[in-house]
Structure formats: structure tokens, C-alpha cells
Amino acid sequence: MEKKSKLDVLSKFNRYRSLVLLVIMIILAALLSPSFLSSNNILNVLRQVAVFGTVAAGMTFVVLTGGIDLSVGSILGLSGAISASVMVSTNSLLLSVLSGIFIGVIAGVVNGYFISKVRIPAFIVTLATMTLIRGIILVYTNGSPISARIDSYRFLGQGSLLGVPMPVIIMLIIFIIGFIILHYTVYGREVYGIGGNKEAARLSGIKVVKTEWMVYIISGLTSSIAGILLTARLGSAQATAGQAIEMDAIAAAIIGGTSLSGGTGFILPTIAGAIILGLIDNILTLMNVNPHATHIVKGLVILIAVVFDKKMNEITKKSSLKGE
């Protein structure tokens, strides 16, 4: 009985570990830098986090199935470039947004087809499409920025509503929709089922191919939205946009409590994971630390999160085998 209560405590801590770490980091940051708690600084952190946080929402779906999507940064970059060029040529915000999203969905369809239907490992497929799409971006833009300094477009990335930046509002809406899908729909239960045991899910009647395919479409969709937000914020589409953002997205999901082995995790704490990564950059900047040191700190945080996740899985497995 005592062991079971300890396991319950560990499980609850694992579920809310990102929130605990976030609170600790906020307190530490406030002590290290008086300017940290200023409204301008907080809004700046949230604005920075919103882009890869949006990508992380879709990545959480992928990781829950035990998969991975390395192409999200390239999808982000291409969607932003297409969106910007359509905005400039048509001056239509609706067409611009829809064209960017269309690119992301198509990329997700391609990834999902080869992973779920052809059954090529996700790492290989998304590594290939990451390189392929990045090449398309460089050819399409000729390596030069595509300016899109149109007020209605820039509002998506630079505007605010009731004092809250638009990218943050859009990110929160995406996470709320993701939470509803994962916890209140049949599809959400199927995603968890595939991550827990793909073969068992298939035997229980879950359409594994369709469900797994869809998570990559969702990932492509959120990446394209992030690309539009980033391009709108900068006022131009950069050929290098989104490079290495897949690492931040995966890290946010892991720190948020989503297990790399699949089947375990919660999408809302991924926001906390994203904010933690944003705080690392912000704190080190306020302390005038070498900006390259952020990679060291982020790497350590990710490593600790992965080790903790592994230990929790081992403890849970041992307890289930003993029937505790």
C-alpha cells in the first residue's frame, strides 16, 4: 500500500513536473534580474515562445504515437514563404493564410503516407522531407527574404488583443483545441492507444494507419500556422526560417511530460515546457551570458527530462508486473 502511494505521488509529479520547474525558474529569474518581471519582458518571452510553442502542439500528437517529425522547421519555412508571396501578389489575408496552411497540410499528408502506409520509420521519412523542403525553400526564395510588410498581415505577428500578443492568443487556441481532441474525442483515445501498443490497438479495432497518418497532418498544420506567425512578426519570409526549431518543439513536449516511447503525456503542460525553454534564453540574456551557452543549458534540461521519463517508465512497468 505504501509503495502504491509512492507511485501515485511520483506519477502526479511526473504529470505536473513542467509546472513545478516553471515556477522554480520564474522565482529564480526574478531573484537574478529585477527587470525579469516587467510586463514588457514577460510579453516578449511569450511572443518568442508562441512560434515554436505552436509547433510543439502538433509535435505532442506525433510523440504520443511514439513517432517524431524532424521536418517541422522546413514546413514552417516553406509555409511562411508561400504565405508571404501570396500576400504580396494578392493583398488578401485570407488567401495568404490558406495557402500557407495548405502547404503544411500537404507536407503532413506526404509524411503520414510514407510513415503509416509504406511503414518507413518516421525518423527517416521526416529527415528526408526536412532536407527536401529546405531545398525547395532555397530554390523558391533564391536565398533572399520575401518582404510582406502589409499591416493586416503583420497584425497576426505583431498585433495584440486586450494587451495579449496575437501569436500567443493563436497558440493558446491551438492548445485548447488539441486538449479537447486528445481528451474528449474517440480520435484522441486512439492516439493514446497507438502510442501505448500499436499492435494491441490494431487488434482492438483502431484504424492505426488512418490515425497515425492524421497526427502528421496535424503536425504539418501547426507548423504552417507557426510559419505564418513568424513571417508576419518579422514582416518578411526568411530562407533560413525554422531551422533547428524541431529540437525546441520536441524538447517542449518532453519537458511537458510527453513520453518519447509514446502513449503517455498531456498536451497542456507542453506550453509550460515551451515557456521554460523561452525562459532559459531570456534569463541568460538578462544576465549577459554568452548566447551560445543557451544550447548547453537546454541540452542539460532535455537530458534530465529524458532520464526522468525513462526512470518513470521503468518504475511503472515494474509495478504493473508485480500487480501493485
TrEMBL record:
Keyword Lipoprotein appears in the UniProt entry: no
Highest taxon of the lineage: Bacteria
Membrane topology: Multi-pass membrane protein
Keywords, in A-Z order: Cell membrane, Membrane, Transmembrane, Transmembrane helix
Protein name per UniProt: Ribose ABC transporter permease
Location in or out of the cell: Cell membrane
InterPro entries: ABC_transp_permease (IPR001851)
Transmembrane segments: 20-37, 49-72, 93-114, 120-140, 161-182, 213-232, 253-280, 292-308
Keyword Transmembrane helix: yes
Pfam families: BPD_transp_2 (PF02653)
Organism: Facklamia lactis
